TrEMBL record, chain A:
Pfam families: Proton_antipo_M. It comes from the Archaea. Its main location: membrane. This is Cation:proton antiporter. It is a multi-pass membrane protein.
Automatic annotation (TrEMBL), chain B:
PANTHER family: NA(+)/H(+) ANTIPORTER SUBUNIT B, NA(+)_H(+) ANTIPORTER SUBUNIT B. It comes from the Archaea. Pfam families: MnhB. Keywords: Cell membrane, Membrane, Transmembrane, Transmembrane helix. It is a multi-pass membrane protein. Its main location: membrane. It comes from Methanolobus chelungpuianus. It is found in: Cell membrane. Residues 5-128 form the Na+/H+ antiporter MnhB subunit-related protein domain. This is Monovalent cation/H+ antiporter subunit B. InterPro entries: CPA3_antiporter_subunitB, MnhB.
From TrEMBL, chain C:
Keywords: Cell membrane, Membrane, Transmembrane, Transmembrane helix, Transport. This is Cation:proton antiporter. Coiled coil: none annotated. The chain crosses the membrane at residues 6-23, 35-52, 58-80. One of its GO terms (cellular component) is plasma membrane. It is found in: Cell membrane. It is a multi-pass membrane protein. It holds the Pfam family MrpF_PhaF.
Automatic annotation (TrEMBL), chain G:
The chain crosses the membrane at residues 6-38. Its main location: membrane. InterPro entries: Cation_antiport_E (IPR002758). The keyword Transit peptide does not apply. It is found in: Cell membrane. GO terms for cellular component: plasma membrane. The keyword Nucleus does not apply. One of its GO terms (molecular function) is monoatomic cation transmembrane transporter activity. Keywords: Cell membrane, Membrane, Transmembrane, Transmembrane helix. It is a multi-pass membrane protein. This is Cation:proton antiporter. It comes from the Archaea.
Length: 512, 138, 86, 138, 789, 126, 164
């Protein structure tokens, strides 16, 4: 077997293995850091190799245990591999950043294993071809997030009590949503007798053609929308996000807002577009409606926030609404737009959150009203923050511009005039609150706070600068030369709308 | 608390429970049981010791680092899978061979047994780690 | 009515007093006794299953139940008495 | 077991659990979550109780034959497994049991975390009342 | 070097040079402005290379591959219009950057200043040479951002921040609408390339007949108006005066604000010749011209006067580009284009003069000035020339284009007929009169009369030649173009107008062109303007009274109310959307679950409850399940935690009995074990919390929760009853494979275990990872105690 | 013939066992206080359970089933009294009153005496 | 070492039982596992010095007698309690009494306490701190002295023989 064939499983097993390794051999912090950054760099390189392999050679199916569709398959199609690249990129940067940012205590104890497992969870979700396995990896992701949120970093001004409360809400809601997911999976299995998503898809389309598709099948689709909508923080399932994400230390915040909420979108793209085509006619209007409300609610809430992290969290809600709008409109172009949007938001938001962590460390407070004048002392952070804000606001020459461009274009070409109009208006809201915030932090006078004297001494360290600068490069790259992303997303969208190659690749496996 | 009576009976029971847990682990492939069940059984045995003799007393006798247990377990389980890759198979590709030994007769050696042992250690390690950490908490 | 049905009916009825004690008490100790008795009845049900179906699988469950019923009881009793477990 | 009655019971436990998780009390929410996972686990098993009626453990050394074929025929759309008519399988569905087992273990892990979270929350906030713990408002 | 390369280079050079500017600054120290000026000069030369070609009616085109997915190339297009703009931008750029050498204090952050100036210049050049809408938009928004950085250059001053924010919100926000307009255009025509559209008559016809014509036009005009401070969008421009004066000169005379005008000119062939075009562009221009002229008149800040005057001058151009009819779509085009050039010269000059004045007097308040002609004679002369040109006084260039404005107004009025025959010329004259009045006020207030303030410095002296040369050069241009317009007309205006009108334009402009109606209007303008200025005190007082009585009736206060009010309203909104406790979140989740589950029921009328239900129930099953319900109810009812936990254990044990009945010994064992361990954890926790918590459940909360719970219950029941009808034929469960193969292939008899460790061992791997995570997470939780405790 | 005898014997043990467990549970319901109820579960029910296990062993001999059943029986006999003892002790120490019809409580007296002596809370020794 | 082996062999037997297979091989496997378990738990167990094969061998018949007696007593006890349970009036006079014991070794004290719990109408609640008295709950304490006497003479005798 070609070594490339193993890359999907390596993307998951390597961090798991390494997590165990780290728990077992707690060594000196410096070595630990270097090893972990090394592993994540390796994962990133592998993910790129995987994507290019899939691009060249088509869908890569990996049989764990070699049981064909009767076991669990990892399916690296362009969507999956692309998401893995994205998550590997962001985790690498967050990891580099974290080696400096996180508390000594966290680095010495559980940070590295938890972070490794979080990465494994993400990759596992993106690569699995089995719906129950997706549930398992959802749990990995949730629990690792919870464990990581508790940890603290140097710019982390969240009270422990608040963190715990946030985790409590997150966890309880998650457990309810996971319950719903299990109900859906069990019902799905009871209806078609399989858990392999490609297998389900082909059986469902057979039943639909034969006219024997039971009606409760659509209920299952709806339940899964609730599950994924919760993960993606779609209205009215978005409440938790503004509590939870800001409670996390910056690198984890970046992971959560950058990658983890994207899992919900991925879920809809993967599961609904593969399996629930028959329900799409009901789902699409619902998704569009809810995504528009999500956009509006997120943006409107963000404006009134003076807690920087919270403001950005609401912004994530709003932005995910744009992604879901694309998902809901459902044409090839709209899906392209959704994926482009997703990628750009992931990169820019995670960069913004990493920058925020460092900014809060400099500021000594979370309250925007108490900040000001940092441009002079931290021009680097100011530029990074600006690039991030521009991208989220959709201004060129950042990636965010093209995501808005293609989204609006897709909407207008499918004659969704009113949704686009609403999205457009809230894009200006976004511009407003992001720039207002940027100005409040970096321009104006230095405020008289606890840190008024000390703030100049706190300069970002090399690791933090490297992580931020690399992400900024990606943001600019996607704004200056978006063709790679656009054509990749376009191909992904085509594959989503025509799942036949996916199904064929999966089901043409021989059994032992 | 715990009286002499409870302690004595506990001493008598714990080895039984541990043996039973090992039996569940090894028999799991053919009878009810397996790594998880065995591991939880073992955990129960140790919890019984903790309950009856007290965590602090047990800790003064043995300094178990349960987190190492689950790390080792996770390593064993993943290595079982990776082992298959070394033979150019897929991850977690199972295999078994029936060995005829002169004294012991036919013995079926399964690669999945190692996987199950990993599961056993992880379950034991993580649950006892939780118990111990929580029990030590003031 | 065959032996299994008989055993199951009698044992299921035996569950009622346990549940009564667990839910209605009146004292905590009564609830603990109820739970302890519940585990015992379950052991018997498992035994009955094995006996009638002549399959050993449920005896493993019975042994498990016997063991951990004991542990659970001791844990709750220790909590009740001293307000701590470990 | 009777499907209908079981379904009704599962649904009722779902309802009770829902009522519990809407309470203001941390511990009661945790209990509600536990009930919810009980209900879910029963639900998963119940959806698979359709094959035969025997414990899914093969006694004796002979492999069981279902007479089925397991090769997918994408061209006709009829996908494996294909089982000829009139084949009666003695065993209950083992797959749902395995899924439930995984679900049980996962919910144990999550519940453990949740409970200790409740304790820490009480420790930090001095109350188990969820609605008093509302610092994160607005 | 071919022309396309020259233009491309001219666009990218400023960016490249801006990137390496910090390095240059290290070498040149505070002379780095010359470096920037040199860059601008090179750009000018590069652009100028194209001039001969465009004068000959040729165009420069070329492209690089960029985004094939959107069929968008990186393409540049040089015609008369864009070359004119390129020359203005880079030419004035040279002057501004040279001027800044002296103007900007050595202590300033020069690197940032010139970096953004260069980037701004590059963006402007990129914008005017862009061939396609997407690329144009990119550069368009870049000008918004770079100008935002420039306006807010003094970033610690609150008013700078305010002004910068406003400019960004209005211009970039308007840009987003414009983008939508471009997208509609793209959807109608199938291309984003404006030049392609321009050169394709059938496409233009298609657009004009399309139902999306009006939306596209409105959206694009919103963007243009926002950029050019027209209509209600004017509000950003006066506040943008917080920028360093050279920046204001650059932004508001020649570049930033002209972007909107450029866009209007560029899309002129596509949309003009329609009523909508006239109403939107022309109407907007006329109204803005009057309002801004009126407002400029009463300003006390010299830069304020220039700001409002800029708005009103831009409105002239807007109005002229808006003049259109089906027969002669380009009525005002040449006039507007000529005025555009003239305005660039005199307004840049005026700003630079204002900069000198402010620099010397250390104030910008015109009421404190006066009599400066003695101390600053050269400045006075230069300023007076520029202001008089703005006022439309012959023989300066402003006079020429003003005359043309009147002519085109008359023509437009004539075409429209009816009351418009007089209204439009009258409006033009009134606008001219305001212009005359505030121009005179600028000269009079600053240079003439006596000193009005003691606070002015005792000794003022003329600035150095470095600072004086740029305005002097511009003033010279004002005179030169005024007296000898034909060169400018031939080399610049005609090609530009041809570029707009897509036909060869021949234009004859001379200082004296006979006694025409326009000349009469000019004379009326002067008289009316003088009268207005004479009544300045009364008018200003009236204006103050009005704005004092209706303080909220302005677009500025509307903006402030929206911006400030939004935060407050949103805080309140967020409070509503963020109730805090868990239960509302959960209720939201459950409700959406219920609602969405109901959708298929409504849309596909299925039988909710299957007819073939097994209703034969052995007694012991009923009792067992009943006991589970009883014990579950117990957990809900029992007050003390310990009691509830004992009941939970009972539920768990009973559930394991259900598993036994369902022939699942592995599950039953697991359930029993897990239940016991969970009980131990429960106990470990309730040791440390109070024994109970009594929640007072009000009747309404009870009703609500019961309702939700029953709904959940019923939904799950219906789903489950339907789902447990068995796998839909012809499909079968995967389990057949496991049953058949667990012994021969996996070597195990316990199928469940074989599935767990082999068929689906990967799931189990995930499961043990979850267990590890619980351990690590709990460790974190318990070691996370805050120090305050 | 022997086979049937074993079957009959085991069935008898089985039924008696079931019956005893049932009686124990009736006792659990009927007896007046927790201490008395413990008698019912510790003795009768445990015996009943032992009987069922014995029945299995009789039926299957030293097969896997029989051995396991014996193990279950032994374990129950080992643990049931301890569990009862610990519950009773905990109940008494946590203040569960004896039934009003009880005639003596020497344990309470001893506890009171010791409490006076130590003047401390519950016994914390291991 | 000997005592370890003794323990290990006992555990080997237990292993054979719990794994449901009595064979020499399985017994050996169990003994090895048992040895490992005892070894790793030795700090807690402190295997008694006098735990030898001979003492085990000597005690075995007595243990058997003890178990026989125990079973008979349990059966008697059960019948007695069953009668009480089923009697409509439930005429009982319960109470807690202190019963002095002679046993000194842990195993024998435990054995006597459990024996009391399993036999007619009595239930061990606690041991006194000095390990000389058991507090016993009895369903019928109308004649406490007789009860104490019967415990000492009937039950403790067998226990002491089997365990001391
Ligand atoms: Na498992
Ligand atoms: Na018991």
């Amino acid at each position: 077997m070609d070594i490339m064939q193993h890359v999907p499983i390596i993307m998951i097993i390597l961090p798991v293995f390494f997590a165990a390794f780290t728990v077992l051999f707690r060594s000196k912090s410096g070595l630990q850091k270097a090893l972990n950054v090394g592993v994540f760099a390796l994962l990133f390189i592998l993910s790129l190799r995987l994507l290019s392999y899939v691009w060249d050679n088509g869908i890569l199916v990996y049989e764990v245990g070699e049981w064909g569709k009767y076991g669990i398959l990892l399916v690296a199609d362009l969507l999956g591999a692309g998401m893995v690249v994205l998550s590997s990129l962001i985790s690498l940067m967050a990891m580099i950043y974290a080696t400096d940012y996180m508390d000594r205590k966290a680095l010495d104890t559980t940070f590295f294993p938890l972070f490794n497992l979080m990465a494994a969870g993400l990759n596992g979700i993106f690569l699995t071809g089995d719906i129950f396995n997706m549930f398992v990896f959802f749990e990995i992701l949730v629990l690792s997030s919870c464990g990581l949120i508790v940890l603290t970093g140097r710019g982390d001004h969240t009270k422990m009590a608040d963190k715990l409360e946030a985790i409590f809400k997150y966890l309880v809601l998650n457990m309810v949503s996971i319950t719903l997911m299990l109900v859906a999976i069990a019902s799905l299995y009871a209806t078609v007798g399989t858990l392999n998503m490609a297998d389900i898809a082909v059986k469902v389309s057979y039943l639909a053609e034969a006219g024997t598709l039971p009606w409760h099948f659509h209920v299952i689709a709806m339940i899964l929308i609730v599950v994924f909508g919760y993960k993606a923080s779609m209205f009215p399932l978005h409440f938790w996000l503004a509590d939870v994400h800001p409670s996390a230390p910056a690198p984890i915040h970046a992971m959560l807002s950058g990658m983890v909420i994207k899992v919900g979108v991925y879920g809809i793209l993967r599961v609904h577009y593969l399996i629930f085509n028959e329900t799409m006619f009901m789902l699409q209007p619902i998704l569009i409606l809810l995504s528009l409300i999500t956009i509006a609610v997120g943006a409107t809430s963000a404006i009134g926030q003076y807690d920087l992290k919270r403001m950005l969290a609401y912004s994530s809600v709003s932005q995910i609404g744009y992604v879901l709008l694309g998902v809901g409109m459902g044409t090839a172009y709209a899906l392209t737009a959704a994926i482009v949007y997703l990628v750009n938001h992931a990169v820019a938001k995670s960069m913004l959150f990493l920058a925020t962590g460092e900014t809060l460390y400099h500021a000594g407070t979370k309250d925007i009203r108490k900040m000001g004048g940092f441009a002079k002392s931290s021009p680097f952070l100011g530029s990074i923050f600006l690039i991030g804000a521009m991208s989220i606001a959709g201004l060129p020459p950042t990636g965010g511009f093209f995501s808005k461009l293609v989204l609006f274009d897709a909407g207008l070409s499918s004659e969704y005039y009113i949704p686009v109009a609403i999205a457009l208006v809230f894009a200006i809201f976004t511009l407003f609150y992001l720039f207002r915030t940027w100005l409040a932090i970096f321009w104006g006078e230095i405020k008289d706070t606890d840190n008024a004297d000390g703030y100049t001494e706190r300069k970002p360290t090399v690791a933090i600068k490297v992580a931020l600068a690399l992400l900024a490069c990606v943001v600019i790259y996607m704004g200056v030369y978006p063709e790679h992303l656009l054509s990749l997303s376009g191909t992904i969208a085509d594959q989503l709308l025509d799942p036949q190659p996916y199904i064929t690749a999966v089901l043409e496996r021989s059994v032992r | 608390m715990t009286t002499l009576i409870a302690k004595t009976i506990t001493k008598a029971c714990v080895p039984i429970i541990i043996l039973f847990s090992i039996s569940l682990l090894l028999a799991g492939h053919n009878y009810p049981g397996g790594g998880f069940i065995g591991g939880v059984m073992f955990t129960s045995a140790i919890s019984l010791l903790y309950i009856v003799f007290g965590l602090r007393y047990m800790d003064s006798l043995y300094r178990y680092q349960w987190e190492k247990w689950f790390a080792v377990g996770l390593l064993i389980s993943t290595l079982t899978g990776i082992g298959a890759m070394a033979f150019r198979y897929s991850f977690l590709r199972s295999t078994y061979l029936t060995v005829s030994l002169p004294l012991l007769g036919d013995i079926k050696l399964l690669s999945t047994t190692f996987f199950d042992i990993g599961v056993y250690l992880v379950v034991t390690g993580s649950l006892l780690f939780v118990f111990k950490t929580m029990g030590e908490d003031e | 009515m065959n032996l299994l049905d008989l055993a199951l009916v009698v044992m299921t009825l035996s569950l009622l007093p346990c549940l009564y004690r667990i839910v209605f008490g009146p004292t905590v100790a009564d609830r603990v006794v109820g739970l302890d008795a519940l585990t015992l009845v379950i052991v018997v049900i498992l035994g009955a299953y094995s006996y009638v179906q002549e399959s050993p699988f449920f005896l493993d469950a019975a042994l498990v139940m016997a063991i951990i019923g004991f542990i659970g009881t001791i844990a709750i009793a220790r909590y009740l008495e001293e307000g701590e477990i470990f | 077991m009777n499907d209908t009655l079981l379904s009704v019971s599962i649904a009722l436990v779902f309802g009770i659990a829902t009522f519990m998780i809407l309470r203001r009390d941390l511990i009661r929410v945790a209990i509600g979550i536990t009930l919810l996972s009980h209900a879910t686990n029963m639900l998963i098993v119940s959806t698979g109780a359709f094959l035969g009626g025997r414990t899914p453990i093969i006694t004796g050394d002979k492999a069981v034959s279902t007479g089925g074929t397991f090769i997918d025929d994408l061209a006709t759309g009829i996908l494996a497994p294909v089982i000829p008519d009139g084949i009666e399988i003695a065993y209950v569905d083992p797959l749902v049991q395995a899924l439930t087992l995984t679900a049980i273990v996962i919910s144990l892990a999550t519940t453990a975390f949740l409970l200790i979270l409740c304790y820490r929350l009480y420790q930090e906030q001095g109350t188990t009342d969820v609605s008093e713990i509302r610092r994160l408002k607005g | 070097m071919d022309l396309f390369t020259a233009i491309t280079l001219a666009v990218f050079l400023p960016f490249i040079m801006a990137a390496i500017l910090p390095a240059a600054e290290r070498v040149l120290k505070n002379r780095v402005g010359w470096y920037a000026a040199a860059v601008a000069l090179i750009c000018l030369l590069l652009v100028a290379q194209a001039l001969p070609a465009v004068v000959n009616g040729e165009t420069v085109t070329g492209s690089f591959p960029w985004i094939p997915s959107l069929q968008v190339e990186l393409s540049f297009y040089g015609d008369g219009l864009s070359v004119m703009f390129g020359l203005i931008v880079s030419g004035i750029g040279i002057l501004i950057m040279s001027y800044s050498n002296e103007y900007m204090s050595k202590r300033e952050d020069l690197s940032r200043y010139y970096r953004y100036l260069l980037m701004f210049m590059g963006s402007m050049l990129g914008m005017v040479f862009s061939s396609n809408a997407i690329q144009l938009f990119v550069f368009w928004e870049l000008t918004s951002i770079t100008s935002f950085m420039l306006i807010g250059y003094w970033r610690n001053r609150p008013m700078s921040v305010y002004g910068a924010t406003k400019s960004l919100l209005v211009t970039a926000g308007g840009g987003i609408f414009m983008l939508a307009g471009f997208l509609l255009l793209g959807i109608i025509t199938g291309t984003f390339d404006i030049v392609t559209i321009l050169q394709n008559g059938s496409m233009i016809a298609l657009i004009k007949g399309h139902e999306l014509f009006l939306p596209a036009l409105v959206l694009i005009i919103i963007g243009a108006a926002a950029k050019s401070a027209q209509g209600p969008f004017y509000i950003w421009l006066p506040n943008a005066m917080e920028a360093p004066t050279p920046v204001s000169a650059f932004l508001h005379s020649a570049t930033m604000v002209k972007a909107g005008i450029y866009l209007v000119a560029r899309i002129h062939p596509i949309f003009s010749g329609t009523e909508a075009w006239f109403v939107l562009v022309g109407g907007l221009g006329i109204i803005t011209m009057l309002a801004a002229g009126f407002l400029a008149f009463r300003q006390t800040d010299i830069k304020g006067i220039l700001a409002y005057s800029t708005i009103s001058q831009l409105a002239y151009m807007m109005a002229m580009y808006g003049y259109t009819s089906y027969q002669y779509p380009g009525i005002g085009v040449t006039a507007a284009t000529f005025h555009l050039l003239n305005h660039a010269t005199f307004k840049a000059c005026l700003f630079l003069v204002a900069g000198i004045v402010a620099h010397e007097t250390a104030t910008r308040d015109i009421t404190k000035m006066g009599g400066l002609r003695k101390e600053l004679p050269a400045t006075f002369i230069i300023g007076a020339i520029a202001a008089l040109s703005m006022a439309g006084v012959p023989p300066l260039n402003g006079f020429l284009s003003k005359e043309m404005f009147y002519e085109s107004s008359l023509e437009m009025g004539h075409i429209l007929g009816g009351p418009f025959e007089y209204l439009i010329p009258a409006a033009a004259v009134l606008g001219g009169a305001f212009t005359f009045a505030y121009s005179i006020r600028f000269i009079d207030g600053i240079f003439l009369g006596k000193r009005r303030s003691e606070h002015l410095p005792k000794h003022m002296h003329e600035p150095t030649p470095v600072m004086l040369f740029p305005p002097a050069l511009l003033a010279a241009l004002v005179i030169l173009i005024g007296i000898f317009p034909s060169a400018a007309v031939h080399y610049i205006i005609e090609p530009a107008a041809s570029g707009i009108l897509l036909e060869d334009v021949q234009l004859h402009v001379s200082l004296w062109h006979g006694f025409t109606a326009a000349l009469l209007m000019t004379i009326i303008t002067f008289i009316a303007g003088a009268a207005l200025y004479a009544r300045y005190g009364a008018i200003a007082a009236w204006q103050d009274r009005v704005s004092a009585r209706y303080p909220a009736w302005s677009f500025n206060s509307l903006y402030d109310r929206i911006v400030n009010g939004a935060s407050g309203k949103s805080t309140a909104f967020a409070k509503v959307m963020q109730p805090g406790p868990l239960s509302p979140y959960l209720i939201a989740m459950l409700l959406i679950f219920l609602l969405l589950s109901a959708v298929p029921v409504i849309m596909i009328a299925g039988t909710l409850i299957p007819t073939e239900l097994n209703l034969e129930v052995p007694m012991y099953e009923a009792v067992l399940l009943g006991l589970i319900i009883l014990a579950s109810l117990g957990t809900a009812v029992l007050r003390k935690y310990l009691h509830a936990i004992i009941a939970v254990s009972a539920v768990g044990y009973l559930v394991s009995l259900v598993f036994i009945y369902l022939q699942a010994p592995d599950l039953a064992i697991t359930q029993l074990l897990v239940e016991t361990l969970a009980t131990i954890i429960f106990l470990l926790v309730i040791i440390k919390v109070p024994q109970t918590f009594r929640e007072k459940i009000t009747r309404s909360v009870l009703a609500r929760d019961l309702l939700i719970s029953s709904a959940v219950s019923i939904t799950v029941l219906i789903l489950l009853l339907n789902a447990s009808q068995g796998i839909v034929s012809p499909f079968e469960s995967l389990s057949y494979y496991f049953i058949e193969n667990s012994v021969p292939l996996a070597g195990g008899h316990n199928m469940v275990n074989v599935i767990l460790v082999d068929f689906r061992g990967y799931d189990t791997l995930g499961e043990i990872v979850v267990l590890c995570l619980a351990g690590l997470g709990v460790y974190n939780l318990l070691k996370s105690r805050s120090d305050s405790k | 013939m022997l086979f049937t005898a074993i079957e009959v014997a085991s069935n008898i043990f089985f039924l008696i066992g079931i019956l005893f467990v049932f009686l124990g549970m009736v006792g659990l319901l009927r007896l007046p206080d927790v201490y008395n109820r413990l008698h019912a579960t510790t003795k009768i029910a445990t015996l009943g359970a032992f009987g069922v296990m014995l029945a299995i062993t009789i039926r299957t001999g030293l097969s896997a089933m029989g051995l396991k059943a014996i193990m279950v029986g032994i374990f129950l006999i080992l643990t049931a009294p301890v569990a009862a003892h610990i519950i009773a002790r905990a109940a008494h120490r946590s203040g569960t009153e004896l039934w009003t019809g009880s005639v003596a409580d020497e344990y309470a007296e001893a506890c009171v005496a010791k409490k006076d002596e130590l003047n401390s809370g519950p016994d914390k020794r291991l | 070492m000997k005592q370890y082996i003794a323990y290990a062999l006992i555990l080997g037997l237990v292993w054979s039982f719990v794994s449901g297979n009595i064979s020499v091989l399985n017994f050996m496997v169990g003994s090895i596992l048992g040895l490992l378990i005892v070894q790793s738990l030795k700090k807690l167990y402190r295997p008694d010095k006098d735990m030898t094969f001979r003492s085990i061998a000597e005690h075995l018949p007595k243990l058997a007698v003890y178990f026989a007696v125990l079973l008979i007593e349990i059966t008697k006890a059960s019948v007695q309690i069953a009668r009480i349970i089923l009697s409509p009036g439930m005429d009982i006079r319960p109470g807690i009494i202190a019963v002095p014991i002679r046993a000194t070794k842990d195993a024998s004290i435990t054995a006597i306490a459990n024996t009391i719990s399993l036999t007619p109408g009595t239930l061990t609640i606690d041991i006194s701190d000095d390990m000389t008295k058991l507090y016993v709950h009895a369903i019928d304490v109308s004649e406490p002295e007789e009860l104490k006497h019967s415990i000492r003479d009937k039950l403790e005798k067998y226990v002491l023989e089997a365990f001391e």
